[in-house]
UniProtKB/TrEMBL annotation, chains A, B:
Its cofactor is FAD. Residues 136-315 form the FAD-binding PCMH-type domain. One of its GO terms (cellular component) is mitochondrion. The keyword Oxidoreductase applies. Keywords: FAD, Flavoprotein, Oxidoreductase. It comes from the Eukaryota. This is D-2-hydroxyglutarate dehydrogenase. It catalyses: (R)-2-hydroxyglutarate + A = 2-oxoglutarate + AH2. GO terms for molecular function: (R)-2-hydroxyglutarate dehydrogenase activity; FAD binding. InterPro entries: FAD-bd_oxidored_4_C, FAD-bd_PCMH, FAD-bd_PCMH-like_sf, FAD-bd_PCMH_sub1, FAD-bd_PCMH_sub2, FAD-linked_Oxase-like_C, FAD-oxidored/transferase_4, Oxid_FAD_bind_N. Its EC number is 1.1.99.39. Belongs to the FAD-binding oxidoreductase/transferase type 4 family. PROSITE patterns: FAD_PCMH.
Length: 565, 565
């Protein structure tokens, strides 16, 4: 009881000022795979593509027999090769129904777009052919930069009639190889369509072209007292059209939810060039099927998003951050429930990490200090609040923390006193990936699972691997998004074989998702059955055929390359 | 300045306790049309259907030539007759491709469902054939009550092969004739599928069968400390499957948003009997097209929703209500902006009414007292807050009101001191419809429009009609949902001709919606072009053909009966 009291005092003593943490690059964890890779790029018919090693050998027992179609295509294929260890490789064949670009095609595009928006030079193309992690590389010979919807329409109408495959490209910041060509697809980059069309300060509804960069939109809105409902590490490059097309999640998800809830309307161009105007700016509209949702998250495979209407929340001024310790995972769950109940309307982040994650950071990163040094606890939780009134919000947070401490949910904790302290707390959470890289090899999984079952997977994996590896569990508990990471001194196929397909089967069995927010792209197109039922995939394929009968839009992505089971 | 100070004091003096208002039936305004109606019901081929008079003569100049197809069908038609005044009537013909029910069909259904779930008796059928407002009546000879998804699948598979038309029915509480047969469609009522499947107290995710009554779900959740993210006047009868199928809005929309944001997954049965399992329970899942959105708001015309997974918010304990006066509409808009900024996270309602609406209530309803009797103001606003901490929330509201008063946005105002006072404030807002009925004839429009332009329509209508009518504007300002009402002593075609099609054209011109939350059903299927573009409707039609090639699911609803423009 005495300890509880002292801890509570500490919480209260340290909470003296509001903070606004500058977080480090939240996508930093994705950078780790780049180190030490060697890439071999082939020609159109023999390009080596190196995806994440998150997506190694997948035994799709759950739904479809991978064996049946692996090796079906041997000639003129684009092999997907896996890094460091030689597990099963799948192949993607260039679709022979697509035409090869001709000089007449170029002439046509120059005619409709003007010479300066038709790019064939190697410098421009080499950048656009490769994703920002330098893991995927295509061999496109042409990049087009339309300046308006009508030009996008003319391009697609022509490409469809000529059966020229197209890859829509925004900021090219995707993580699953969705925004670069696989072979020689024509790149349609919408970066020149970057005008803000309107902003309604009363309703907070922004209408803009799809090529607007997320950070620019956010800066514009902040000047108006609003902010974008999504925030990504790539915000300086990614474009809103790409965000919508990939249903980007990001840091503000726990507070503002999915783009399916925030996007009010879009304008999209279908494969045949038809422009679908669904650019409503209304929160309520029940006049028929809400087809914009088809284009949110379909990764450019159903149409190119050209304009977006989005509901933006007000920018609130008061931000607080607490770093807490819990003895067990059940306490973390209960704390989440209590935080939702007591802080509900001001809760803006609820992140967790386990003791293995904390140990990893303390061991491998310099300048990191444990905010709760008296003991190593089993779990750590970061709770951030964002509200409209500094003093009330802080009192509310402090009262909540005191009650949780007295109730035994929290074993210890501190509240950041200033922006530096807040940044140091976030550094622990966001430094896990960097620490893992320094520790050696890492097998990394980004899963969405029911919160109550989420940590069972970490514990089962720990039992499964024994002393051969360290198993870390951390992530966005408030969004039910687990980062499961297995750390070893060096890569070992036998370790991988113990992890996969177990991790995917476990996720599938618990109705989880193998891609919480990154999409499927090229990388996970064949893994779809771990999360989606065959009937749902069949329906997806039918919709794709309906909207893009020639399959010219972003081929080889999202949908499985194999025959349907 | 002195007045401001006194007003502010009043605000502070009166705000002494938290309240939980019991509102009157929020759908009461829809009851007005029933009074004095006389209905003539014909047989299958000559059924008289009486829709709202919100949907009188529609000159669809905006997009499609109504003239071209009005009167196309004369024989064996179901006439849509308009009440009281003889404007243009449109006709719906029974689709001759649908089969007529045979005794063999009945035998089959008895075989798969058992005798007690196959209804042919007149009592049961007469209730199910008619909507709850007694405005629409079909002539179905058969009602089926499946008990599980597999039975729904067997029914649809059979109906599809036999080309028997089907109307899916939940609680039959819709307002646009969407849930009753138009002719002899087989009624598939899912009310027996009413089990709660699971509830996760940590994530707040509820999974249940589609026949669960909304109020039962809400009661279940309240015991768990949660609540449904939607609340309707019809909650005692309506079913969650129907709510999802119609994308129901309701009272909690301004706080929790649309079902597109809250529904995490569904299971649906397509016309051919295939079961599509999209019953995810994850907040994050980016594995391909999110096809559940096709079924949210498609009014049962693409499939029958059989199970639902929904994210439910925590029930918060502190509720406060203020009744305020503003001098002009610009102040109302600014107040909304400020309320979002200062109360943001606890704001749960922002309703407005103009002086004509207030005058109507004070004149025609008994026992209504003006909470601000010192003067008649141009606009009145109700602001409700719902939060987790009574004392903090109240202080926050009071500080906000004081600032708004000092800033000149509010001219006067009171905060409810107890539940009775809160109910009396809500009674004013919700009594407008009843008052309008007592005043004589009313022409009623439920529109979604950009907030900044919304009241322009009321003013233009007032100028247009001059002294011949009273024009009232009120509604859910926080949702940009306007109730435009024109009140006259008696119905008059010349008044109607001045209102329509002007009101629809104005709504269309400002990219508004002619159906903010009720859907299209039978009533507004032909009006879709006022809000949706022809290309979007074409795409809707394609999707309908893809998912239901024989068109057996809820025919004559949602999609226009006319050839596409």
């Amino acid at each position: 009881m005495e300890k509880l009291f002292r801890s509570s005092q500490r919480l209260l003593n340290q909470s003296s000022s509001s903070i606004f943490p500058h977080r480090s690059n939240p996508n930093f964890e994705h950078l780790k795979h780049i180190s030490g890779s060697s890439y071999v790029y082939g020609d159109i018919c023999n390009a080596y593509i190196k995806p994440y090693f998150e997506c190694e050998t997948r035994n799709l027992q759950a739904y479809h027999p991978l064996k049946d179609y692996v090796g079906m295509f041997r000639a003129k294929t684009c092999r997907i090769q896996y890094k460091h260890f030689g597990s099963t490789a799948t192949t993607v064949q260039r679709d022979p129904s697509f035409s090869i670009l001709s000089s007449d095609d170029i002439d046509y595009f120059v005619e409709i777009l003007g010479e300066k928006n038709v790019f064939q030079d190697e410098d421009k193309l080499s950048t656009a052919n490769m994703d920002w992690m330098r893991k995927y590389k295509g061999s496109s010979k042409l990049l087009l930069q339309p300046r308006c919807t009508e030009e996008v329409s003319q391009i697609l109408k022509y490409c469809n009639s000529r059966r020229l495959a197209v890859v829509p490209q925004g900021g090219n910041t995707g993580l699953v190889g969705g925004s670069v060509p696989v072979f020689d697809e024509v790149i349609v980059n919408i970066g020149c369509m970057n005008n803000i069309i309107s902003f309604d300060k009363v309703s907070g509804i922004l209408v803009c072209e799809a090529g607007c960069i997320l950070e620019n939109l956010d800066s514009f809105l902040i000047n108006q007292g609003f902010l974008m409902p999504l925030d990504l590490g790539a915000k300086g490059s990614c474009q809103i059209g790409g965000n919508v097309s990939t249903n980007a999640g990001g840091l503000r998800f726990v507070r503002y939810g999915s783009l399916h809830g925030n996007v009010l309307g879009i304008e999209a161009v279908l494969a045949d060039g038809s422009v679908i105007d669904m650019l409503g700016t209304l929160r309520k509209d029940n006049t028929g099927y809400d087809l914009k949702h088809l284009f949110i998250g379909s990764e450019g495979s159903l149409g190119i998003v050209t304009k977006v209407s989005i509901l933006t929340p007000l920018k609130l001024s008061s931000i607080n951050l607490a770093f807490l310790a819990c003895n067990d995972y059940l306490s973390c769950q209960k704390l989440l429930l209590e935080a939702r109940r007591k802080l509900g309307e001001i809760l803006s982040a609820f992140e967790f990490l386990d003791h293995e994650s904390m140990g990893m950071v303390l061991t491998h990163l310099e300048g990191i200090r444990n905010p709760l040094p008296s003991s190593m606890y089993n779990f750590y939780v970061l709770i951030e609040t964002t509200g409209s009134d500094e003093s009330y919000d802080k009192e509310k947070l402090e009262a909540f923390l005191l009650r949780s401490m007295e109730g035994g949910l929290i074993s210890d904790g501190v509240v950041a006193q200033d922006i530096n302290q807040a940044s140091s707390f976030w550094r622990i959470r966001e430094g896990i990936t960097e620490a893992l890289m320094k520790a050696g090899a890492v097998y990394k999984y980004d899963l969405s699972l029911p919160v109550e079952k989420m940590y069972n997977l970490v514990e089962e994996m720990r039992l499964r691997l024994g002393l051969s590896a360290k198993v870390l569990g951390y992530g966005h508990l408030g969004d039910a998004n687990l980062h499961l990471n297995v750390s070893t001194l060096q890569y070992d196929d036998s370790i991988l074989a113990q992890i996969e397909p177990f991790v995917y089967e476990w996720t599938s069995k618990h109705r989880g998702s193998i891609s919480a927010e990154h999409g499927l792209g090229l990388m996970k197109a064949n893994e779809i059955y771990y999360t989606k039922s065959p009937e749902t995939v069949r329906l997806m394929v039918s919709i794709k055929k309906l909207l893009d009968p020639n399959g010219i839009l972003n081929p080889y992505k999202v949908l499985p390359h194999s025959p349907l089971p």
